[in-house]
Amino acid sequence: MAIGKSPLCYLSFSLFSALLLILLATLTSGNGLQTPKFHGFSFREITVQQIQLGFKRNQFTSRRLVEFYLKEIDRINPLLKGVLELNPDALSQADKADHERSTKAAISLSPLHGVPILIKDNIATKDKMNTTAGSYALLGSVVPRDAGVVTKLRKAGAIILGKASLSEWSHFRSNNAPSGWNGRGGQGKNPYTGGDPCGSSSGSAISVAANMGAVSIGTETDGSILCPSNNNLVVGFKPTVGLTSRAGVIPISPRQDSVGPICRTVSDAVYVLDVIAGIDYNDKATIETSRYIPKGGYAQFLKADGLRGKRLGIVINPFYLGIGNDTIAIIEKHLNTLRKRGAVLLDNLEIPNLAAYGNSGSAENTAMLAEFRISLNEYLKELVASPVRSLADAIAFNKKNPKLEKLEYGQELFINAEATKGIRKAEKEALSFMNRLNREGFEKLMTKNKLDALVTPTASVSPTLAIGGFPGVIVPAGFDSDGQPFGLVFGGLKGSEPKLIEIAYGFEQATKIRKPPKL
Q1: How far apart are CA 171 and CA 177, in angstroms?
Q2: Which in 38, 192, 367, 489 has the greatest CB count within 10 A?
Q3: Listed residue (118, 122, 230) closest to 171, CA to CA
Q4: Which residues are in the Amidase domain (predicted)?
């Protein structure tokens, strides 16, 4: 009798299946060190590819995966405060995904099908959850529709697990408020240090770093994806502005706002980007920017030898200044790894108009204050229902509810933005200055030296990328002497995502720095 047809073999398989189900139901310890394991991998640090493989082999279900994350959120989130609100329909969405998979529905072929995802709480979901930017001023507001990226995620079969916490109003209410704090959820904490998680997409980074979700979505106006990813040892992908839709996202500056993935691996971030990138007619910028999307999508650029032949630039001043010697030593080791993997590094480059970059923050602030008032008022007016209908209403709400909003942190950015009168002479001069800065600075540096990417430590390059709408990917690079995680950013010109993916993935596969926090 063939072994494959042995009754004993069938009995053993049934017994194994029964034991596996028991293991799934019970094996989650109080300290989180034991987690369900399947053929060498566990739910902790599980990747999108591993999730899909587990589904294909019938090793677990979407429901079981969602239940794991809900338990971890219940256990860890009271301390870390990375998740602001859970989706009451998450389990029913998981059951729907399991049914679609069992019937081999076409949607089940999507790489994000059945995958639980956390959405930053400034991104609209037309469901039972709130969209508040962490503020009580928007609690109970009703959005007209899902945000453009959420629509794409639902079409791909992703499970919306909940809303990630953030720095309130994407850190654009006051400069005095701590990073990672919001009125509704309190102070988010870095799972590695217990300290600064960085903002404003703090909860998105905290949550995936601490394994409270499979993948997450953040937003960036200036540093709000790159900085939390840096501090929490995860991968952050800030796309070219307009590559992903901002429709339904509580805005700061449409000129700089970008929606992107925050995940534990480069490949996971790329699978998410493949889903959320593309045209959304509610965000006209996506129509023009969609020309950058390569035929066949972005996952094809996940190449282990992606560093070979890439020209990478090193600008010491200002990006490497003020970094400790121990961290510099780690960075030097990584730069040598890049060389060994076939990259060509151009050392000691200079940004042509470096001195002018010192004024970029002032120009950026001048433009953003006016842009914020205009775009926020448009967003609030479109809401089906809301406690506030304008920036002026939000300022008044805070004054009436000082304890709810911890008004001791102030709201000077709100007040300064409300005082603007549109895009007038000062704003136009600021915009012109930044355009010239991009053209004569970063763009000239990249084109003159024929660079594929600029390599910088931590998130110090974020203002340079932000004011030009340029993309950047940050990958875990290690810990400094104080135990603070940090990453390397690979930044490029608009539409350079394919090259950045090859570089970031090649670096990640060569180093594999990422490890979970000891919770």
Answers
A1: 8
A2: 489
A3: 122
A4: 65-464
DSSP state of 460: T
| Structure tokens that stand for 375 in this block | 């775009």
User: Among residues 183, 178, 213, which one has the least CA distance to residue 68?
Assistant: 213
Q: Of 135, 141, 200, 229, which is the active-site residue?
A: 200
**Spatial CB neighbours of 187, under 8 Å, sequence gap ≥ 6:** 81, 178, 180, 181
The candidate with the shortest Cα–Cα distance to 262, out of 204, 221, 223, 301, is 204
Active-site residue flag, 174: no
Q: What angle do CA 37, 40, 44 make, to 5 degrees?
A: 50
Give the three-state DSSP class for 496: coil
Per-residue pLDDT 10s for the chain (519 aa) are 232 333 323 333 333 333 333 333 333 333 333 444 544 458 999 999 999 999 999 999 999 999 999 999 999 999 999 999 999 999 999 999 999 999 999 999 999 999 999 999 999 999 999 999 999 999 999 999 999 999 999 999 999 999 999 999 999 999 999 999 999 999 999 999 999 999 999 999 999 999 999 999 999 999 999 999 999 999 999 999 999 999 999 999 999 999 999 999 999 999 999 999 999 999 999 999 999 999 999 999 999 999 999 999 999 999 999 999 999 999 999 999 999 999 999 999 999 998 899 889 999 999 999 999 999 999 999 999 999 999 999 999 999 999 999 999 999 999 999 999 999 999 999 999 999 999 999 999 999 999 999 999 999 999 999 999 999 999 999 999 999 999 999 999 999 999 999 999 999 999 999 999 998
Beta bridge partner(s), residue 41? 38
- The H-assigned helical ranges of 7-61 are 7-26, 48-56
Asked whether residue 106 is domain-assigned, the answer is yes
62, 108, 110, 120: which one is catalytic? 120
* Catalytic hit among 141, 224, 360, 462: 224
Look at the chain and report how many structural domains it folds into: 1
CATH number at residue 442: 3.90.1300.10
**Structural domain contains residue 206:** yes
Q: Does the active-site annotation cover 428?
A: no
Residue 384 class from Cβ within 10 Å (0-12 exposed, 13-18 middle, 19+ buried)?
A: exposed
Q: Which domain holds residue 283?
A: 62-360+434-511
Q: Is 200 a catalytic residue?
A: yes
How far is Cα 485 from Cα 479, in angstroms, rounded to an integer? 4
Helix (H, G, I), strand (E, B) or coil at 269: helix
Residue 305 lies in a domain: yes
Domain membership flag for residue 115: yes
Q: Which residues contact 56 (CB under 8 A, 6 or more apart)?
A: none
- Nearest partner of 85 among 130, 25, 142, judged by Cα: 130
Which of 164, 187, 184, 167 is closest to 175 using CA atoms? 167
Report the predicted TM-score, pTM, of the whole model to 2 decimal places: 0.92
- Give the whole-angstrom CA distance, residue 33 versus residue 54: 21
